[in-house]
Amino acid sequence: MPSLLELKNVSKIFYGAKGRRVRAVDKVNFSLQKEEPQIISLVGESGSGKTTIARMILGLLPPTEGGIYYLDKDIYAMDKNERKEFRREVQAVFQDPYGIYNPFYRVDRVLEIPIKKFNLATSKEDSQRLITEALEAVGLRPKDIIGKYPHQLSGGERQRVMLARLYLLKPKLIVADEPISMIDVALRALFLNILLDFKNKYGISCIFITHDLSSAYYLGENLIILYKGRIVERGKTNEILTNPYHPYTKLLIKALLPPDPEKRILTSIGSDVRLNEDIAPYKENSCHFANRCPSSMDICREKAPVAVKINEDHEVRCFLYDEKG
């Protein structure tokens, strides 16, 4: 049976001035099952390649190497009809809840367009019924939303309108790129609960991209830790967060849960825990974390570590656990 989505050795290289090149994503592999909906959280600080991966999955940025397959079809080799179906079945929620709206149109238009494009309603009355149902499904009162312009809604309301749009389409996969980073803390749990409801009630899988481990923990299921374009640790969320192996994962958890309860909770590695800040450029064929790692060895600067299976629910790329290293 084909996977719902599969990334095979996906890399993305950006080229700059004077021949400079940046490998933003480096040989990333992961997949989502078709038969059972699931949530995978991609976690890492800025520059880890999370958003680049999201854009490649959505068909907005072709990979330099490797392939991305939806139901066993390369998404960059689809014909017109296959791409239309892909566009309906794979939907996105982005970080900025305002920038995705056209300020000259009422927010109703965000919901009306997919209804018309995909022939979801047979009449205007049917269309209004669907819009009302979708808004209520994400905890919004239609009378407070319909007829309003984007600037008249809060960030949380704008993001939930986008979720209402997804409710209308019932996609098979949602790619959510930092969707809660710009909404009030009080509304973040509500947003995450909606994603969980989508999975449990409608069988919608989700790739949830975040720098916040606490959000990934709330969603549970599967976790992938990224560092400078590479997967350094992956497995079941609870397994990784209660028993982290990679030094980078340990620092992420340390940053999230500082020992001083009076200290503001951090959501990425801060300067106070950058134990070995990059003091020299890393080589592509090496461990990218070596110059910051408190446990780095000579071999870490000579070659890249391979995946080591800790157990069925846990995998890490680190020479500390590679007996062949």
Description:
The chain is an alpha/beta fold and 325 residues long. It folds into two domains: 5-243, Rossmann fold (3-Layer(aba) Sandwich), CATH 3.40.50.300; 244-325, no CATH class. It has helices at residues 50-57, 80-89, 108-117, 124-137, 142-145, 155-169, 185-202, 213-219, 237-242, 247-256; strands at 5-15, 21-32, 39-43, 65-70, 73-74, 90-93, 173-177, 205-210, 222-227, 230-236, 307-311, 314-317. An eight-stranded mixed β-sheet has the order 6-7-8-3-9-10-12-11, sandwiched between helices. Strands 2-1-4-5 form a four-stranded antiparallel β-sheet, covered by helices on one side. A hairpin with a 2-residue loop joins β9 (222-227) and β10 (230-236). α3 (108-117) runs parallel beside α6, α4 (124-137) crosses α6 (155-169) and α6 runs parallel beside α7 (185-202). It is globular and about 70 Å long. The two termini are 36 Å apart. Mean pLDDT is 88; it is low at 258-279.
